[in-house]
Design brief:
Chains A, B: Its cofactor is NAD(+); Co(2+). Two copies of one chain form a homodimer. With 343 residues, chain A is α/β, with parallel strands linked by helices. Chain A is built from 13 helices and ten strands. In chain A, the strands form three sheets. In chain A, strands 1-8-5-4-2-3 form a six-stranded parallel β-sheet, sandwiched between helices. A two-stranded antiparallel ribbon of chain A has the order 6-7.
């Protein structure tokens, strides 16, 4: 956890982290929205960033074009391995910027400042970088940790409610992977008016759940697959929505994936039905729905593309109980269709 | 060394390595020349490769365009992490294909079959992958080892003499980094008519010199920099030549870099002048020259871009004696110009 810094004033933290870094050796990547945060973030270092790559917002710009723009800035402006790339934004920016940093001269220094709840509790943690190819999520990427992740909860104050709800889906997943007490707190927390102190505690717990699992298995050979809970079906829904140029958020897709994979867990692993019903009800209340049955065949095709697959079929992480997961389960198309039907 | 397999019949080795791999899960990348080797290489697995990406020959095609072509084939044809990318070619193909494999779904299985002397004794070893950006060598890349490197010396029989001489420059470097006895054998070996048995022994020794150094420092934090001997100036010459669209080979540039950096070693580190003169004479006899003094300023600018640099200036590995190197030396523009003048 020592690389993760919690704060309510990231400009102070950055002033410390950037001590001794030469002005022209700091590089920034942000999107059109988060670039507006940069002046404030860097106000205590007393200079404006010289080298800024601004990419277009949205998952569809987590692309080779954006990565190439960052590489090009770094190369043209003389970045070195010892230079720093500061990635300011949601998971799109930290994933894509982290990939660019991990491959520029085979790896330069990198700091993330995640600005969305989703990025703070999930995307910026665990050292997975990447971008999308032909609509396939994170088809290209590396395992590479940034030097520091600065989690500033005050940045969430201006985050749209819909974005906050999206990030909350990953916290629900972390709740399901850890213990009933934490899950309980998540299920009674009103995501619309989170009390700041309480919310900070929930975030910290979520970060530690993810960090504990990743530390045990950084390269996803085994138990890290637990974190894919909800994501086999969730990613397929997200890809399907992206192909149709709809405006679905990652966490919105994952929330629906959690319903379906929790249903599979009840059926295949004896996960308690009562907890399933409560989680499903919570998601149904706060998250938009999606006509999954209209796209069931497409969704199945997309699942077959999932990175976790081998030749045995579509690979799922399922739960036996809260905090008890079982990796490498294979489900048939029929089972999957039945699960989709619960969404 | 267990990942490196020496053979005179790579089709036999591949038949063994590919046992159990499904036909449609083998992917091949080759260039327009080496693609002709593939049928023979795969004759003992009894099937023709289905998925082949062919890239244009030459260092200028070690580019993002080529990498993207490989990514696209892998993605469109349903490659998985457990699929194999077989890279058949010189360092251009193994570096670029290795990069594509190390980043596809954050890393798939990969086997190199280096077909040039340069790739066999250097490029395919040590886990550096990458491609060129805007004329800058290996500006983008990863540290990632293939699962196996199959070194088949019989493939060298059809290699043009000029290519063989180019690869020999890296062997000279390995000689300078190891011991006088090996260097002696290299300096008396006629590169035009290498006896096969003797040559195989020279190759094996070269591979072990490189492997020993890389194993101690895979991510180039310290002593691996020894392998950059000759490359600070050599890479600059190569980049300069590439910008001018000349047809210089990597090893030809490195041979000239060895002269200049050996001269710096004599001046700054007391490297024995007699050995310097013999190595210089050997290189002058077998390698084409280059008008370095006409491009001295450009070359210096290019050196400033070198990945090994930090803010202290141009970073050199120099030699105190054969087998005794000193990393992280900084030389001034004047010293470098004097060294260039010896080429």
């Amino acid at each position: 956890m020592e690389r993760i810094i919690f704060t309510t004033d990231s400009s102070l933290v950055l002033a410390e982290l950037l001590q001794g870094v030469r002005h022209d050796q700091l590089f920034v990547v942000a999107d059109k929205h988060t670039v507006g945060f940069c002046d404030k973030l860097l106000e205590k270092v007393n200079w404006m960033p010289l080298n800024v790559a601004v990419v277009d917002c949205g998952e569809e710009n987590k692309s080779l074009v954006s990565v190439a723009r960052v590489w090009s800035m770094l190369s043209k402006r003389g970045a070195r391995r010892s230079s720093i790339l500061l990635c300011v934004g949601g998971g799109m920016v930290t994933d894509m910027g982290g990939f660019a940093a991990s491959t520029f001269k085979r790896g330069m220094r990198c700091i993330y400042v995640p600005t969305t709840l989703l990025a703070q509790v999930d995307a910026s943690l665990g050292g997975k970088t990447g971008f999308n190819l032909d609509g396939l999520k994170n088809e290209i990427g590396t395992f590479s940790e940034p030097e520091r992740v600065v989690i500033d909860v005050s940045l969430l104050q201006t985050l749209p409610v819909r974005e906050r709800v999206s990030g909350y889906a990953e916290m629900l997943k972390h709740g399901l992977l850890s213990d009933m007490e934490y899950l309980e707190r998540l299920l009674v927390c009103d995501t619309n008016v989170p009390e700041r102190e309480e919310f900070l505690e929930l975030i910290k717990k979520s970060v530690s759940v993810k960090n504990d699992i990743v530390t045990q298995d950084p390269n996803e050979k085994g138990i890290r697959k637990a974190l894919n809970f909800g994501h086999t079906i969730g990613h397929a829904i997200e890809s399907c929505s992206m192909m149709r140029r709809e405006n679905m958020l990652h966490g919105e897709a994952i929330a629906l994936g959690i319903i379906a994979e929790l249903y599979l867990s009840v059926r295949e692993k004896g996960f308690p039905g009562e907890v399933y019903r409560r989680v499903r009800e919570f998601i149904k209340r706060y998250y938009p729905t999606y006509p999954v049955m209209e796209h069931a065949d497409t969704l199945y095709e997309l699942m077959l593309h999932d990175k976790k697959n081998d030749r045995k079929g579509v690979n799922f992480t399922l739960l036996e109980d809260v905090g008890q997961f079982s990796i490498n389960n294979y489900c048939t198309k029929e089972q999957i269709t039945e699960a989709l039907n619960q969404i």
